[in-house]
Amino acid sequence: KQEVTQIPAALSVPEGENLVLNCSFTDSAIYNLQWFRQDPGKGLTSLLLIQSSQREQTSGRLNASLDKSSGRSTLYIAASQPGDSATYLCAVKSQHDYKLSFGAGTTVTVRA
Amino acid sequence: GAGVSQSPSNKVTEKGKDVELRCDPISGHTALYWYRQRLGQGLEFLIYFQGNSAPDKSGLPSDRFSAERTGESVSTLTIQRTQQEDSAVYLCASSFLAPASGSTDTQYFGPGTRLTVL
Fold this sequence. Notes:
Order of helices and strands of chain A: EEEEEEEEEEE
Shape of chain A: globular
Oligomer: heterodimer
Number of strands of chain B: 11
């Protein structure tokens, strides 16, 4: 069974600092890995999707890396803003089935 | 529609009552998923529909849980004789393509239904 762990569970930084969020998974036989953002009372928003053959994906201030062999992904958010405050979830899609396995998330607070 | 919608947004019920949660996927999306998120925990897969069929019901926590989908559109998740441990946010997602290997489909999530069982 795929186990996904996110560290840290919570993070508070002053505006302008770079954010580093970590995700690890136990089964490297993945099809892709996604990073989502979850805001209170709202659904999940997909931020970045990395295919298993890729090493990283970038979108604006966001960059996600993937090291499949070591079972790790890192989400970098540059020059954080108060609007980046949310819970960030990492989800892994197995090669063997259609299920997404989620981590418990990292709750980020960016202080103005 | 513009996105996945779910109703109700909040539901408070008494232990032992039955509840129905509704999901309206994005129009044209063939696949539909239900997840559960307990407080402080990650999302837990419950069930997946391809069209109106559910190939895999193994994620349902107990036989008190059931789900159906009609018209390859709306889905209803029913919880009978609710228990306090059923309290969670129930999230629905839909995607365009069948999620077989080789698919690059992205799941689009609804806002969720927060269920509280007293």
